[in-house]
Design a protein that fits this description.
It contains nine helices and eight strands. By secondary structure, it is α/β, with parallel strands linked by helices. The protein has one domain: TIM Barrel (Alpha-Beta Barrel), CATH 3.20.20.140. An eight-stranded parallel β-sheet has the order 1-2-3-4-5-6-7-8. Helix 8 packs across helix 9.
Length: about 260
């Protein structure tokens, strides 16, 4: 199994990172994609420790839409920052998480869009996949991805929690859908319905640690080991064995991120 999206370079894991990684390995994880905030020196520094302890991990780096306002006067500076980070991170395999968040609107929407476009340009130039964050912004996210007349980047919609119709719209981009622990929540029936119809070769799983711990761990800090629970629920939803789903999502991860 591979956790396709976690934040274990964050301060939430600073005190017990070795134990977190040990539990992940014990749960059967071979790797994880660690998401790094391009504008956080602390996360970039902590990544070195993560990779030393878990050499199989790989990274993605980008400017989150919540932080886009820091680049309001010069959106292209966000792209330049990402390029500098990529140059110093040989284990980086993607740009992200990037996108739009209209739920919190911590950054003005037009600024979010400009910063998103700037980072997509880097992805195209570098031929790197992107990790998309979109919340209550689906229409604009899809529009920006396809502004050239077609979607000319590879990527994944991280933390997908929509219904079958939303899954169908997202899949038309050719992107992958990464399923979080939300799929285990009792009220997430529509998400499970969506998961049942996602082509197996477009499916990934994630924890989004430290957020969104799956049942029965809700209310606790999430961590990569819990992706095993996500795999189990996806497998149950699809009528498959967890080991089979684990192998499929790992193969998908390797195909997208070329770790």
């Amino acid at each position: 199994m591979i956790d396709s999206h976690c934040h274990i370079a964050g301060e939430e894991f600073a005190s017990d990172l070795p134990a977190v990684i040990e539990r992940a390995r014990a749960a059967g994880l071979s790797s994880a994609l660690v998401i790094l905030a391009a504008d956080s020196d602390d996360e970039i520094a902590q990544w070195e420790r993560v990779h030393e302890l878990w050499p199989e991990t790989r990274a993605a780096v980008g400017v989150h839409p919540h932080h886009a306002h820091h680049f309001a006067s010069a959106p292209d500076e966000a792209a330049r920052l990402v390029e500098r980070r990529l140059a110093s991170l040989p284990q980086a395999r993607a740009i992200g998480e990037i996108g739009l968040d209209y739920h919190y609107d911590f950054s003005p929407r037009e600024v979010q869009q400009a910063v998103f476009r700037a980072q997509l340009r880097v992805a195209r130039e570098r031929q790197l996949p992107v990790v998309i964050h979109t919340r209550e912004a689906e229409e604009d996210t899809l529009s920006i991805l396809g502004e050239s007349g077609r979607v000319d980047t590879e990527g994944v919609f991280h933390c997908f929690s929509g219904n079958p119709a939303a899954a169908a719209r997202a899949l038309r981009t050719g992107y992958y859908l990464s399923i979080p622990g939300i799929v285990s929540f009792p009220k997430a029936r529509e998400l499970r319905d969506a998961v049942a119809g996602v082509p197996l070769d477009r499916l990934l799983v994630e924890t989004d640690s430290p957020y969104l711990a799956p049942a029965p761990f809700r209310g606790k800090r999430n961590e990569p080991a819990y992706v095993a629970r996500v795999v189990a629920v996806v497998a149950e939803t699809r009528g498959m064995a967890p080991a089979e789903v684990g192998e499929i999502v790992s193969a998908n991860f390797r195909r997208l991120f070329r770790p």
